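pasting input
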Amino acid sequence: MENQMENQEFLADKIRTQEYQLNMGPQHPATHGVMRMILQLDGEEIKNVEPVLGYIHRSIEKMCEKSSYKQIIHLTDRLDYLSSHMNNEAVTLLVENALGIEVNDRIKIIRTIIAELTRMASHQLWWGVMGMDTGALTTFMYAFRDRELINEIMEETCGARLTMNYNIIGGLRYDIHDNFVKRVKEFIVHFKEKLPEYDNLLSNNVIFRKRTEGVGIMTKEQVIAYGMNGPTARASGFECDIRKKLPYSAYGMVDFEEVLRTEGDAFARYKVRIDEMWQSMNIIEQLIDKIPEDDFRMKTKPIIKLPKGDFLQRVETARGDFGVYAMSDGGKNPTRFKFRSPSFANLHGLNKMSENTKIGDLVVNFSTIDVVVPDIDR
Amino acid sequence: MKKEELQSLLESWSLDLTFIEGETQFLEVEVPAEKLSELSLKLKEESDTAFDYLFALTGVDYGKDLGVVYHIESTTHNHMIVLKVKTSDRENPNFDSVNDIWPAAYFNESEAYDFFGIKFNNHPHLTRIFMDEDWKGWPMRKDYTDEFNMLTR
């Protein structure tokens, strides 16, 4: 007994607090791919998040230096596989602009419709996973039910469900399927009914609101300084939608809103994506009846050579501002091909976002920046 | 601000800049390595330029030289500038870090270090961000030989 008392006294002198490290990943389900994070913690409070990258690095940029421009297109949908069509579009637009090829309106409109369908499919998947990360397991099923309809449309027209490879230089690989217009219209009718359900299920859920509102606030100045982009940055009031800023394809022909919010918290980031799905439907509705009869492919040279110089093309993918930067010496391969990845840029803000929050909030914050790990690792 | 206006403004700063001639998409400027941080700070602070958004930072191997290309945008004026720095030192290439001016450079500079071996002075935490820590050589350099690659072997 006496001995125990002594021990306790001894411990009281020695007890202290210290920061410790916790490993999250690489196979943690909340990391949306194979990524590892080293957390520096004080109790449950996060002091620092250090991502450890490279688990799925495939040196795509190096492969591009040995590939022709036609081949490069098909490497890009392995970056951000949820925005594969927009990634393809970035490379095709880069080459077309460098060569001065102007595609016809039919191609432009079809590209835009498919891009918006892809964006919706991506946001649906994100919504399902976001719900799952916060403990609402059914959202995943709801999202996949609706996403399946888009995938079926893609399958019919592009021949693939996820990595579509539908864009080629100077046009599209195939013409649209006869059912395309009908099925897209059916989908819009269906999804207009279902999207309010998403709000009822998750957006207006008390538990979900408490977990997201006021969590991980980023100001506009921080978002710009950290180079963040896409819906994540628009939730903090940063106008960075490339579809508005530098319109490409058919975005100049349509009237749509850039979704902006000013709160900058996790709920704002969540809400921006929900509202973007409404805007995507709005864009598709304006275009779907306007597809003119024309060729779906322009004539191009069999071997594509870019003129000497540097070229940059930016498009708005579901993650944000995707940039393709090519350096050409006039040959058929680029000397340097760089992908400016929106997920990589957003990841940098995660540390700031999670400062002095709890571990549970990190999962929410990580979900709301919506990264795709292959897009980070390249 | 238009390309020409931007060029004449930068010329008046007399920082020993070389402007790349020809039909370029944006104003492309070659900066001497020792003037890089001075110019970067000025580009960000001056209200006429206000370049506050580092869009991309790209390491490049030109064959003989190594270099870095910065794409910087202004969110207020919506214009873009391309800065290029080069060095012929392949053994120990180093430039000043712009991390303190644009925090967005933090990971991107690590990436350029990882693939090209370009060091950035005063970077707080320069690591091999994608490759293994014990990886030998700089894989994106033109003279790098990959003994495991079946296509080039």
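fyi Chain B touches chain A at residues 22-26, 28, 52-56, 58, 60-62, 69, 71, 75, 78, 82, 102-104, 106-108, 115, 129-132, 139-140, 151 (CB under 8 Å).
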